[in-house]
């Protein structure tokens, strides 16, 4: 038997490994390498039957939406900024209160006013407080906000030399009136426009300075057919002048009391007739209604009298002289406590005794002017017999007596009036001069009471009392202010 070895047969030789290409090795290493650090989640392949990661759909859409919102917000901010720029000049003084400090640099506003577009820009700066051109003098006395002007032509900034030429060197022959606060001259501007140029006197207490600021601030913003318009002003160095609309028929005082306080003025030959007096009464009532009812808070004139009522070529009345005006309170009664200013005979009793000023103080002054229109007398006349020195105390008991009322009518009317209308106007006057302020009517009520009287007058057509255009509301911020002066 042949020998058989117990050892296992040798295994066949192992095959040699097949060499890999370099690119295959690199691909295998890339598959085995970990995912790189990334803020975005790793995508899932679609060939394995699973859905893709939803974040890859949400995040790009969210980023696009946020970008669009930011673009819209930037566009809105740009539009609002551009719209607000033209109003900066008007609204810059809306948060300013108090009296400014005296003293001002010379005006650098254009040397030529008429026909120079620079003046429009200069006045826009003046409304923001740059009354003196290159530098700001401090806050204006009144803080007012948006008002839409009625006139297309704004107030202009004049130089002293221009106004000096307009008045022929402030000639005495051009004097229209004098008062404690200055002189009013008749002038003719470069374009031929007649104007009343009010030259203020600056005293040591700077009362004229404050009156100048108040009048410029008010008249450049408040526009009514029953208020005297401001054409421009001058604030060169120490000169303060107001350029106002010229009223060819002068003041109401010069018609009712000719020569009183103005010896150089010749008495008018023809006195005011009844229909003209009714129209003046209605115009004055509308002016005060605008100040009281169409402003918030109300503006109190504080020196309403017949010398501050001016008449145009049609004898339509306009109220002037706002140097002592006061902005009322936002409280329910609108009461302001201030020092007493005004003219004797026109002051309301509560204001003269306590300094408490309300719109009803102007109502009392209006009642005194209404008595002057009816009687032709001055408020205080010491030349008359005892008991007749003060117009209000003499007229009040007669206003409710028909026979005595007819006897107290101005003799210059020569009986040319309607008794029924006289009784109704006297009743309005009696309510306005009541001793207690709460018994006096609102100026709106006075206007509504006078309108039917004026319209039904047989000698006065309805066209002579046109319906006034809608007047814009003026918003103001109250402040404390005091000034003096009485321009007759």
UniProtKB/TrEMBL annotation:
Residues 1-20, 91-111 are annotated as: Disordered. Keywords: ATP-binding, Membrane, Nucleotide-binding, Transmembrane, Transmembrane helix. Residues 9-18 have a biased composition (Pro residues). One of its GO terms (molecular function) is protein kinase activity. InterPro entries: Kinase-like_dom_sf, Prot_kinase_dom, Ser-Thr/Tyr_kinase_cat_dom, Ser/Thr_kinase_AS. It holds the Pfam family PK_Tyr_Ser-Thr. The chain crosses the membrane at residues 55-80. Residues 170-454 form the Protein kinase domain. CDD domains: STKc_IRAK. This is Protein kinase domain-containing protein.
């Amino acid at each position: 038997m042949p020998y058989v070895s117990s050892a296992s047969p040798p295994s066949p030789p192992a095959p040699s490994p097949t060499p890999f290409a370099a690119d295959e090795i690199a691909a295998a290493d890339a598959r085995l390498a970990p995912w790189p650090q990334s803020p975005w989640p790793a995508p899932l392949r679609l060939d394995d039957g699973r859905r893709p990661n939803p974040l890859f759909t949400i995040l790009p859409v969210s980023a696009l939406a946020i970008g669009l919102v930011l673009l819209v917000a930037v566009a809105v901010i740009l539009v609002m900024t551009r719209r607000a720029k033209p109003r900066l000049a008007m609204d810059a003084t809306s948060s300013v209160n108090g009296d400014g400090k005296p003293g001002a640099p010379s005006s650098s506003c254009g040397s030529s006013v008429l026909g120079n577009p620079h003046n429009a820009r200069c006045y826009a700066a003046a409304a923001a407080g740059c009354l003196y051109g290159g530098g700001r003098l401090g806050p204006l006395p009144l803080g007012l906000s948006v008002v839409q002007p009625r006139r297309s032509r704004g107030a202009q900034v004049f130089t002293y030399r221009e106004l000096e030429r307009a008045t022929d060197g402030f000639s005495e022959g051009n004097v229209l009136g004098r008062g404690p606060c200055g002189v009013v001259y008749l002038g003719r501007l470069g374009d031929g426009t007649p104007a009343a140029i009010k030259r203020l006197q600056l005293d040591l207490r700077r009362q004229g300075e404050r009156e100048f600021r108040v009048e410029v601030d008010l008249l450049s913003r408040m526009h009514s057919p029953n208020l005297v318009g401001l054409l421009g002003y001058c604030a060169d160095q120490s000169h303060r002048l107001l350029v106002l609309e010229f009223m060819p028929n002068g003041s109401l005082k010069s018609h009712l009391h000719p020569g009183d306080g103005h010896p150089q003025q010749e008495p008018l030959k023809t006195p005011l007739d009844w229909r003209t007096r009714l129209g003046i009464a209605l115009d004055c009532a509308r002016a005060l209604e605008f100040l009281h009812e169409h402003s918030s808070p109300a503006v109190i004139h504080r020196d309403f009298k017949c010398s501050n009522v001016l008449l145009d070529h049609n004898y339509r009345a306009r109220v002037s002289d706002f140097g002592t005006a006061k902005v009322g309170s936002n409280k329910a009664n609108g009461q302001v406590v201030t020092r007493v200013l005004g003219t004797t005979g026109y002051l309301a009793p509560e204001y003269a005794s306590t300094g408490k000023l309300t719109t009803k103080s102007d109502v009392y002054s209006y009642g005194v002017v209404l008595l002057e229109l009816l009687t032709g007398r001055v408020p205080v006349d010491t030349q008359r017999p005892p008991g007749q020195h003060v117009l209000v105390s003499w007229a009040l008991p007669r206003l409710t007596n028909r026979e005595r009322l007819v006897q107290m009518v101005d003799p210059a009317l020569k009986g040319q009036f309607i008794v029924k209308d006289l009784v109704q106007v006297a009743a309005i006057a009696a309510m306005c001069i009541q001793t207690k302020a709460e018994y006096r009517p609102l100026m709106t009520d006075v206007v509504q009471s006078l309108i039917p009287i004026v319209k039904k007058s047989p000698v006065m057509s309805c066209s002579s009392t046109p319906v006034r255009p809608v007047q814009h509301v003026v918003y103001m911020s109250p402040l404390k202010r005091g000034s003096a002066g009485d321009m007759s």
